Every structure is written in structure tokens, then in C-alpha cells.
Amino acid sequence: MYRNNTCGALRASDIDSEVILSGWVHKVRDKGFVVWVDIRDRYGITQLVFDEDRTPKALLSKATGLGRETVIQIKGQVIERASKNPNIPTGDIEVLVAELQILNESILPPFTIEDNTDGGEDIRMKYRYLDIRRNPVKDNLIFRHKVTMEVRKYLSEEGFIEVETPYLIKSTPEGARDFVVPSRMNEGQFYALPQSPQTFKQLLMVGGMDKYFQIVKCFRDEDLRADRQPEFTQIDCEMAFVEQEDILNAFEGLTKHLLKEVHGIESKDFPRMTYDDAMRLYGNDKPDIRFGMEFGELNAVAQHKDFNVFNSAELVAGIAVPGGASYTRKEIDKLVDWVRRPQVGAKGMVYVKCNEDGTFKSSVDKFYDQEDLAKWAEATNAKAGDLICVLSGNTNETRAQLSALRMELAERLGLRKPNVFAPLWVIDFPLLELDEETDTYHAMHHPFTSPKPGQLELLETNPGEVKANAYDLVLNGNEIGGGSIRIHDKEIQATMFKHLGFTPEEAKAQFGFLMDAFQYGAPPHGGIAFGLDRLVAILGGQETIRDFIAFPKNNSGRDVMIDAPATIDDEQLKELHLKVDL
Amino acid sequence: MYRNNTCGALRASDIDSEVILSGWVHKVRDKGFVVWVDIRDRYGITQLVFDEDRTPKALLSKATGLGRETVIQIKGQVIERASKNPNIPTGDIEVLVAELQILNESILPPFTIEDNTDGGEDIRMKYRYLDIRRNPVKDNLIFRHKVTMEVRKYLSEEGFIEVETPYLIKSTPEGARDFVVPSRMNEGQFYALPQSPQTFKQLLMVGGMDKYFQIVKCFRDEDLRADRQPEFTQIDCEMAFVEQEDILNAFEGLTKHLLKEVHGIESKDFPRMTYDDAMRLYGNDKPDIRFGMEFGELNAVAQHKDFNVFNSAELVAGIAVPGGASYTRKEIDKLVDWVRRPQVGAKGMVYVKCNEDGTFKSSVDKFYDQEDLAKWAEATNAKAGDLICVLSGNTNETRAQLSALRMELAERLGLRKPNVFAPLWVIDFPLLELDEETDTYHAMHHPFTSPKPGQLELLETNPGEVKANAYDLVLNGNEIGGGSIRIHDKEIQATMFKHLGFTPEEAKAQFGFLMDAFQYGAPPHGGIAFGLDRLVAILGGQETIRDFIAFPKNNSGRDVMIDAPATIDDEQLKELHLKVDL
């Protein structure tokens, strides 16, 4: 038996017990006459003590020689600590060691196994198995487990069945790129790894499974932006005989359950906002509503004066920065520089200081009087002491720029509090998105998303205006889930494919099995998928998904620990009937 | 709202309620003046009624025209049935329909959606989404969900953390063949799909995760034997600071929990048997102990007479077939033919009838007298009325043949009862297995399996005799789980690699990251992996894993529903820097 207690278990009530502990040497403090060794495992740290009076000389010297991260087993007696440590649960006791066995040595780790390590990101990823010994990483993984257990418990109790769908499926040119898997048994043919189980979950609805979910890995071979992973995990869900309202209620319930179980938060009903309103008020389809700073549109009050920059703009919009009237000229200049960075791309910024005495001081006093500026303040909901920042130009670009500025300022002002959770449903997404390069429409969500009732005709006349039964769940400015009511009618589906530029033959080749299935009595259905990595990170009060994945890949899609991907040998290629052609 | 009740919910207590139901038309019985329609969903079947007296004519005729599998929504009133059906939970009531809406039509399904369908395996697989509507398949998938939920609940409550390990890993030539995944971003390089998360779970132990589990897909590109799948699901587990006893106890606990939750069975402690005993008594390392018929070894009592077939055999062994003394000559001849089939491969079979009067009648009476045969009966534990079947020859072959005969006879005698569960631990597996073709040893379990304490020296002198800290959990003659205590000492690991024929360079190239990790204080650890597909099938009282997989592949590794694998287009190949070379 390696242990009868963990290193986090012993308390004052255990004093006098004989215990066996196993774990890693966390720290050795050698005072000569007394040696303290902290022994660590997943559950905590216990202080071991060896001293001149009570410890045989050989044992004392063995303890003195213990290196960090050595794996040891000890037997000893729990005793009261002379100087208690109220900061750790085992702080009242220590263990007077009678026997010490070294189970495994450790060479010097490349970084310290401490909450605040001296190791940089690269070295910690290469030695991820050591990084995981650190509380911040270990706790994140345990937190992830807790969240997924709660998801499964909740959905299962709500009658959802977790069904495993296949990983070796078929490549479709649609959407982001598939990873493919050559088949040895079927020469020259390839499986594909799923980008999502979308078609399978719809087939399960055709199959009468009624309520499906799955926590499942998905794969996307796309150029990796920061904090994207080529393999990622979804909570994938689908329900039959539902309308949008049923789905929103079901998964609002799940999210409330998680906030309650994980943080003890009782949530009110989640607010809902249309996509159009989200874009108008926040310039963003995933607004962070932990704070205000909604956009005020100023066209009506700022145009038709002599300021040509505004007059020629499609949109003039501003936000009120709380307390910003006190910014110095230098600080404001820096803010102007910030919005002009290529990543943001604004040409310039107009500002208005709302002075405490009710007067205004702006960068465009030449063109606007106090009365004009008072209207701006009203439109942006600015109060005395605030700074109004105004951007202008093309509507979409201006909204994106102002949204970036809003987020940046909120970050600086400490308004994006990690322990505050502000969920929001964004609904009524456009069905189609115009690809301006090719001047073709593609599905904003995916090609099975149903248009809003009565809007099918618009597809012919004004496809960009058609709204979908599609919705996102947004949490603290991040899209954590998204879904739609699907098309279950094969005529409507055929119309959709036509508008997405598929010939009937192409549609059949790619989605034939789904369209075939829909001939046999497909029920009305819809669903949602949550990005688990991000959901867990945000619930954990953080934003970097990599910190919540045990063995993540870097931005080049490489696992630097195991050094993958790698070349494979010619024999293996030959069996797969493949040649590498660089 | 599509429904306010499911089709399995309504009872006598709901009589007079107004209800809305949605589902599929299961059956229409048209008596002219009255039409009954069974409406079906995941939860059950409810009888709808339309009749001349109470139903408007148009509605009655609409009901008459309903085709099977049409998706409908109805509103109506729950009424008491005239002739109740005690065989279904909704059998006391029917719904008098006031409104009927057709939600979706169905063309004629290729087979009937009934428990006993007229559809063969091939057609059901092609239209799996329709097959899933059938209770036997649907119930299996729901059963699978229930089992996995219980696994997760139990392990989670026992302190295990589910950690997701990566799917895009690195190919190793070791063991069965990897599926590989070309990387677009890393030209000419490949990921591999995991055959198991073995190395990652060991790294998690090095990382201090202490107790890990994961229900995870694994992949093996090997020639498919019947009832194997290229992608399969494991319950993968690992624990640190454990000895074999700790693992057996932990997972015996899990298995008992499942038997209790799923079947209400309170299990006694599971018997344990060494590999050597299992081979000696059952000719099999996964004996079905729902019934006896243990082997009796007869060398001592059957050799050194004049029967040369036995005298020249390495092993003479028999089993007692309960009640077999009554078999006719013709039946016994058929049994002899059976063991001589190429799939079994015995040269012949000797038999002894144990007559009710205590005498014996054998096929070798020329060579053995009654006293000899009494000794055979004693050795095989045969009773009056039994038939002793005796095979002989090379030990391994004879055991395999006799094991096949034992299983066949048990099947015929109805001794393999699907609702009886007989778990068994088989322990002390050999560490190495001789590959007779190449005369080299390879790891029976895998190369990280630790030898039994004190047996390391045998590796030099008699490697085939070394026993491992390896164990299988057997249920009803199927290996449902297997594992081992791992080597955590890098010296022992190096010795193992040497005996497995790896040069230090080869070992480093393949397992370098694991061996590196072991330098930093690897704890003693061990684990087990359960084959979930098989576990669920056996707990479900069946043996075909395909019946418990939503979308299985056929014996050629093809998904006939989506027609995968398939060719991919040249553009995609070019991006991956690959050429197909048939």
C-alpha cells in the first residue's frame, strides 16, 4: 500500500495517527538540526518534519539530500505544528517521519513547479506533463471535468441521450477544410474527420432519437488564428419537434445550471437581442454586456454641419467613456493613435469632454456648438465627467472599430470583471452572408439553417435581408454557443442549395444521404453547439482556451511535447498508396 | 408548440385532458366507420381514434389516407379505450383527434419500422437512420447512454478526473497499424490517430493527475475480423501510487456498480484466476464461467497404454458434457465432424459415455478398461449421464480446440444465459509472447507493462516464463477490460525495450517523450481500459457490438450510409502535397 491518506487530507483531528503518504518533494527547508519537507500530490501539500531529537541520524541526512520533485513514500505520526499555517488546509499539523522511501528520483526540472513558475510558455508546453503538476493548470483540468460532468448530468436528466457519432466520415468541400484520413483497406480513398457531427445529429432526429447530445472532438484544418486549435471539443445538441423558443429555454436552463453549480450564481432570465440591435448598439454580434457604453448613432445630430468628414460618412457613432473627461491631452492623443493602428484601422477620432460644469470641450469645436454637443451627449448617454469618442465612415467598418475601442476602454477601466457573468441570446441572424470577393452568398450558420417563417420569398428578391431561425449564446463578449432551427422540408432545402450556388448534382453528391433521409419523414428539429474549450475558460474567469486543454497544440498546429506531426516511413506510405509530393 | 405530451406519457389519469402530440404514423387500421392510427415517438406509442360519429368527415378521410412514417401533429382529447391493451403503458387510453396536421410526408420506407423488421442487415445499415427508429436499436443506444453515464458518475465520485487527450498525435510503428492524417500546415508530415491514449495517460500520471479516466474513441487500421470496428470506444483509466490490488478493487467496484444500476444485481467479490490456470482449465484466457465443464487433463491416466494417438500427444484433455450420455451415435458423429472442421482443427475426438448404471462405454474400449475410464470420469468431474469428450495433441492447439468445443456445447445446452453475469479477473499474464515466425518476443500487453517483482532476472534466461503485473476482466467469456501496472523506472524500461528488440535509438525515437518524462519523478502507476462497445453489448445481454453503435462500419471499414471512405479531389490532394499511387 503506497498511502493511507493523501497529502491534502490530514487535519488537527488526525493528530497521533500513524500515516503513510506518497507524493513529490515540493520543497526542502534544512535548518541543520531540523529539516522540513513539503510533500505534494494532487490533493495538497503536507509538511514533513525530521529533527535531531526525534529522527535517526541516517534518516535526517537522507531527508536533507532530497531533491525537488523526487517521488517519496513516508510513514510517520501526525503531530501538532509549532507554528501553524492558516493559509493551507493541512496547516495545523505536520508528520514526524519514521520511514522514508525514495520511489523515484527526478533530475532538475526545466522550470519550477510553483503557481508562479519561472518557465515561459514554450518550455512549459514542451514539458506539459510537468506544467500539469502546477496548481493553475491542474485546477483548470479538474474544473473542466466538473463542468463536463454537470453538462452531462443536466442534459441526461432532461431526457437527452448522448450518442457517439463516427469520427471517420466523408469529406465535403463545404466550409472550412477537412482533415482527411487515407484508408488502407479502400485503396486511394479517404475518410474525413468531422468538423462537427452536424449531419449525424440531424440523421438522429430523422431516426427519432428526439433529444440528442454529445461532448465530442471536432477537427478543422484551417490556418490557426491565436487561440484556435485544430482539434476542439463541442457540446453538440439537437432536439426534435421544437421551435426556437424551446431550444433557447432548454439551453438557457443548462447554462443557468452551470453558473449555479460552478459559481453558486442564481441567474435571471437571459436577455435577448436581435443581431441587428447587437450590431447597432455594440458593433458586434457577441457583445459584452457586463458594462454599458452602448453606441450612440450621431448621423442625425452631427451631419449637415460644415464638418465634411462626418458629412461624407455612412455612419457617425460614439460611445461615452465613464470618467474620461479627466484624460489629459496626451492620453487622448494615445487613444487616437490606438484607433489608428492597422489592427483597428480608424482614420481618426473625434472626442468630446463632458465637463463637470455641464459644458463641453471637443476636438471639433470649430464645427459644433454647445447645443450640438449636448445632443451628442444625449445620444451616447454621456454624463458629466465622461469622454465621448466618435468614429465615422462606412457602417460595418466604423462599427467594428468602435467595438474594438469599446472593448479596449472597458478592459482599461476594469469593467470586464472575470467573476461577473453576463449571458445574452443574440437572435435573428441573417440567413446568408455576402462574400464580397466572389459576390456570392454563403450560409452564415450552415446550409441547413431555416429561414424565418414567411421570409422564403425574400430569398429571390433580397437574399441578404432574409433572417434565420438562428441564435448564439454570448457570455461576456464571447460566443459560447450557436445553433439554428433546421430545414426539415426537402423543397425548402433544395431552394437553399440553389441560392448557395449548388447545382442539384453538387448538392446530391455532398448531402445526398441527408436529403435522402429527409424523404422518410423528417421531424421539425433544431439544435445548438457549445464550444466547450471556450465555455470552460470563460466560466473559469479566463479567456485562453489553451490553459484548459491538457495537451494543446501551438499556433502551427504542432504538439511540441510529442513532436507531432512528423514524417512517416516509406513502408507506411506505400501501404496507403500515397506519395508525398512537396 | 409541437406537443405538450410525448407519445408514451398518457395514462388513465389523463382522461379528458386536451393534448397535443407529435410523432410518426406507426400503423393505420381503417375499419371504414372508425380509423385507428398509432402515433409513435421515442417514448412510446399512443392510439389515435377517428370515427364517423365524432370526427368531421374531412378529418376522417385525411386520417384514412395517412401513410406509414408520415410525421404528424394532432390535438385531441384523451378518452378511455373500449378495448384496453394491457401490453403497452398507454393501453388504457386513446386520443379522440380534433385536429390533424401533416408535418412531413414519407415515401415508403425500404423496410418495416417494427421490432421484427423485414429488412436485412445490409439495407438496415444503408438506412441506419430508419433502423434507429426501431425499438431494438433505439433501446440499445439509450442503454449505452445509461451505462456511460453510470461509468462517469461512479468514477467521478471516486475521485477520477476525465481528461481529454489529443486525437491528432504521432505515428509509432509499434503494435497494430495507425491511421494517419496528413497535415496541410506542416508539409509532408502526418499526425496519427490514437490506438489508445496509453502514453498520454501515463504522462498525466507523471503530471500528478493521480486518478484519470476518459471515455474516448480509439482507432486501429487493421484487417477487420467479424465484429471489429476501425473506430471503437474505450473507458480508459489510470491511477498513481497503486499496486495491482488497488486497481482490481477500484474497477471491480465500477463493474459491480454497473451490474447493480443496470440489472439490479448485487455481485459477490469477483473470482480471480491466473492466466496459467485459465489456460489449463478452460484452454482460454477469457473463460466463460457461467457454466462448468472445466478441462480434465488425462495424460497421467490415459497415456502409457496401447493407444498411440494419446501416447504421442503432448496433452490429452477432456470435458464432461452434462447429459451427453444420451446422444445417439449419429449425434456424436456430428460432434466429431464439428471438431474436425478447419475452423476448429482437431484430428479426431475420443468419447466416453458415462451410463446411468455406473458403467462406461467409450470409442476406445479396445485400449481402456472400466477402471481406466472411471479415472477419466474423475479427472473431468463427469457424472452418470454425462459424455466425456477427449482431444489430444500439441498442448496449445488441443486447449484451443477443446475450448471451442466447450463453448459450442454450452451454447447448444443453453448454458450461456444472457441474463446471467459471471465476471472473472484473469491475472498473472505472461509478460512476453513468442512470435514463432520471427522467433522474437513481443509485449503481450504493451511495452510499458511491468514484470512481477523479482522476475526481472528471468528476462535474461527464460523470457517466456516471466509473468507480468497484468490483468484482464472477463465477463461471460469476453475480455471486457485489460490493464497492467506500468514500469515507472527508466532502467527497467530500458531493459524491456532491449528484450523487445528495440535499439536505444529506436526506443528513443518512438517513446522518447515518455522516457524523458520518466526522468522527472514518475510515480508508481497502473491502469486498465475497458472496451465500451463490447461491455455495453454484454451488459445488454447480446454479443454483437455493431448493434450498440449508432453508425457502425461494415467489415470492409465502410460506412455504407454515407458511402465513406471516398476519393477526394485533386485540389485537396495538392494542398496536402500528396499523390495517390495505386
TrEMBL record, chains A, B:
Aspartate as annotated region, ranges: 198-201
Residues holding L-aspartate: 174, 220, 445, 486
Documented EC number(s): 6.1.1.12
Domain (Aminoacyl-transfer RNA synthetases class-II family profile): residue spans on this chain: 144-552
Catalyzed reactions: tRNA(Asp) + L-aspartate + ATP = L-aspartyl-tRNA(Asp) + AMP + diphosphate
GO terms of biological process kind: aspartyl-tRNA aminoacylation
GO cellular component: cytoplasm
Subcellular location: Cytoplasm
Residues binding ATP, per UniProt: 220-222, 229, 479, 531-534
Keyword Aminoacyl-tRNA synthetase: yes
Signal sequence, renumbered to the chain: none
InterPro entries: Aa-tRNA-synt_II (IPR004364), aa-tRNA-synth_II (IPR006195), aa-tRNA-synth_II/BPL/LPL (IPR045864), Asp-tRNA-ligase_1 (IPR004524), Asp-tRNA-ligase_1_N (IPR047089), Asp/Asn-tRNA-synth_IIb (IPR002312), AspRS_core (IPR047090), GAD-like_sf (IPR004115)
Principal cellular location given in the protein's record: cytoplasm
NCBIfam families: aspS_bact, PRK00476.1
Annotated protein name in UniProt: Aspartate--tRNA ligase
